[in-house]
Design goal:
Helices cover about 40% and strands about 15% of the residues. It has about 650 residues and is of the alpha/beta class. An eight-stranded mixed sheet has the order 5-6-4-7-8-3-9-10. The chain has a seven-stranded parallel sheet with strand order 13-16-12-17-18-11-19, sandwiched between helices. Strands 1-2 form a two-stranded antiparallel sheet.
Length: about 650
């Protein structure tokens, strides 16, 4: 029987192969899997059902596709995951299976630790950076200068941190082992200065434009090197992320180097510690702002000639700074004095332009830089020649919705914002609201003073509408300003007898409160949130701002990030004259803003004369004699008191039409 079966198979084999090839059931190469056609069909059904697109075509937003892929793997829907993987590969020109950390050359300890931290595989820009930043030719390893340009929320921080850790892993482990052996030989006493194989330090430096981004980058590097995610100083309140019994990422499962020191220089306190408290002693990775790094470099407390890698994050902000030029001049002087090669330089950002790369090349800071993007690694010069305008392309994630609402007068903006927030948090019925995630909103104001004024007025108007932890923030609403305040401060809002005082939390604490979901609405400026990663933001509201293309990219980039399951919406509240500017911006950044109606003010056309018994009746604008509910009347009057100034005020703000 067996022989007969084999004979039948041999006789019919050509027909079987032809049928399988025609139906796609037989695949050639490493992805050869049984049930190919059935699996693809099941994947298509699963993606249409489970990713929420129905019969609509899958999106081309790589951030959204990466998030859906992670979710599909988490629920073990491997058919949907395969379809999403193929879609990502088709959009980015990637090879199948090239996202595994070990195949990308990361050491075993780092690959294992990334998986435990939840980074199961690399995003497209991380994969391209790991593949392209190091060249091996003729037994020689060359670390290339590069500009890492990718949309907001695509994983650029890891795209430069992981190549650095891969590069220095062997030296860090060897230093760790040498120090351990030296301590054992010396009877348990630790003398760091006597370690024979200590690395020249610092080995890497990261330049960031703000203290807040510096803290975020430092904590991520700290976690990658075995540190804890919790920060008791910034998070004195209890939230679930600090208590995770059985967490796979703990000190007992970490097998990498254990004595790597990460330090930050971003305020006067850190400068004092660097000068008088040995903050920089034995530091491996230094993170700081251009101003503070330049001051330390000028003082001679920083051994710049030992630097092997330099990263300038948000390069379009840092490169034009005079402090960055001072730092680079001091670096060139140090390398020349000790006759050592200059360090590898990486520029990173979502809005780096050709002029920034050309400026760095003209000054000799980078040599033959590469352009690393989510889709390719190529020479910067070649990439610019292929573009008709000679500029690096900027885009906003296409998964988010972009809308605008028009307010006829500037004084209507704040009232419209208040009604929008009220609708977001209270409009849905209880059953529907329970199934919907809690809104998380970032409101961008034109300036720091406008942000304080907006937050103060909204706190008074929305205190009963927005849920939040009153012990951690102010009724679920907080304000984040650029690094201007180190401790709790107060600022007056208004003048004369009507002046009020807004309590401003430290910017670092505000950042952590919003990240830990202790507050639901964050009022801020574009400069204050550059590069910050806030989880699960659902809405971005621009309060009377259009701005440049780079500004819009970074404001809109608070939504549509990898890991955010809500696709997000960006709404701009504009005056009529600003609408053409937004439409032009949409053409430049490849998105189509759609108009939407602003929420109407409460139907209070007039305040009727006092009725019998001294009471008052409120008449609807349609002339209906039905009275409005007392709660609505009270809320409307509260809005008038909180959001609008009297006629005699300097700013001239008055209630909008239809309000008494």
């Amino acid at each position: 029987l067996a022989g007969a079966a084999v004979g039948i198979y041999i006789m019919w084999r050509p027909l079987i192969v032809a049928l399988c090839s025609a139906t796609g059931a037989l695949r050639v190469g490493p992805r050869s899997l049984a049930h190919g056609a059935v699996r693809r069909a099941a994947a298509a059904v699963s993606v249409a059902t489970d990713t929420g697109f129905g019969s609509a075509p899958m999106p081309d937003d790589l951030n959204l596709l990466e998030t859906l892929l992670y979710d599909a793997v988490q629920r073990e829907d491997y058919a949907a995951a395969a379809e999403l993987r193929d879609r990502i590969g088709w959009l980015s020109g990637a090879r199948g299976g090239d996202t595994d950390w070990r195949e990308l050359g990361l050491p075993e300890w780092l690959s294992d630790w990334l998986g435990r931290l939840g980074y199961s595989w690399g995003t497209r820009v991380q994969v391209q950076a790991l593949r392209g930043l190091t060249e091996i030719s003729g037994g020689q390893t060359r670390h290339r200068d590069a500009a890492i340009v990718a949309p907001t929320g695509s994983g650029k921080t890891l795209a430069y941190l992981l190549p650095l850790l891969r590069r220095f892993s062997e030296d860090l482990l060897q230093e760790d082992l040498s120090r351990h052996l030296a301590t054992a030989i010396d009877g348990g006493r630790t003398d760091r200065t006597a370690t024979p194989d200590a690395m020249p330090r610092p080995v890497a430096m990261i330049v960031v434009p703000s203290r807040e981004l510096g803290v975020q980058v430092s904590l991520l590097a700290y976690r990658l090197l075995g540190g804890s995610a919790g920060n008791p100083t910034l998070q004195p309140f209890s939230h679930p992320s600090r208590y995770q019994p059985g967490n796979a990422a703990n000190m007992f499962t970490y097998s990498g180097p254990r004595r790597v020191k990460v330090a930050g220089l971003w305020d006067e306190q850190m400068l004092y510690a660097a000068a008088h408290q040995d903050l920089l002693k034995d530091v491996h990775l230094l993170v700081g702002t251009p101003e503070h790094l330049a001051r330390v470099a000028t003082s001679g407390n920083l051994r710049l000639h030992q630097l092997q890698a330099l990263v300038i994050d948000e390069a379009d902000v840092c490169l034009p700074m005079e402090a960055t030029s001072q730092l680079m001049r001091r670096l060139e002087e140090a390398c020349g004095a000790f006759a050592v090669p200059r360090p590898q330089l990486l520029l990173a950002g979502a809005s780096i332009s050709a002029s920034h790369v050309e400026q760095a090349a003209r000054r000799g800071w980078v040599q033959a830089p590469l352009l690393v993007s989510p889709t390719r690694v190529e020479s910067c010069a070649a990439a610019l020649l292929c573009r008709p305008d000679g500029e690096l392309e900027q885009r906003v994630p296409s998964g988010a919705a972009h809308e605008y609402a028009v307010c006829e007068r500037p004084e209507e903006l704040l009232g419209t914002l208040c009604r929008l927030l009220r609708l977001l948090f209270t409009a849905l019925p209880e059953g529907e609201a329970a199934a919907r995630p809690t809104p998380r909103v970032v409101v961008f104001a034109p300036s720091a003073d406008a942000a304080v004024d907006t937050a103060s007025r909204l706190q008074a108007a929305l205190w009963s509408d927005i849920d939040g932890d009153a012990t951690a923030g102010l009724w679920g609403l907080s304000v984040l300003l650029p690094s201007a305040e180190d401790t709790l401060t107060s600022r007056s809002v208004g003048e004369g007898e009507d002046a009020t005082f807004a309590v401003l939390e430290s910017s670092l604490r505000v950042m952590e409160m919003f990240r830990a979901n202790q507050t639901s609405v964050l009022v801020t400026t574009a400069a204050a949130t550059r590069g910050l990663d806030f989880p699960q933001v659902t809405h971005v509201i621009n309060l009377g701002i259009v701005g440049s293309a780079a500004d819009y990219v970074h404001r809109a980039g608070r939504v549509g990030r990898i890991g955010q399951r809500e696709r997000g919406a960006v709404l701009s509240l504009l005056l009529p004259a600003e609408v053409p500017q937004l439409l032009q911006l949409g053409d430049e950044l490849h998105f189509s803003p759609t108009p939407t109606a602003a929420p109407e003010p409460p139907p209070l056309a007039q305040l009727a004369a006092e009725g019998e018994g001294g009471g008052a009746s409120f008449i609807a604008p349609s002339g209906d004699e039905e009275s409005i509910a007392a709660e609505e009347v009270a809320k409307a009057l509260e809005d008038i008191y909180s959001l609008y100034e009297g006629e005699g005020d300097d700013d001239g703000m008055a209630p909008p039409p239809g309000l008494p």
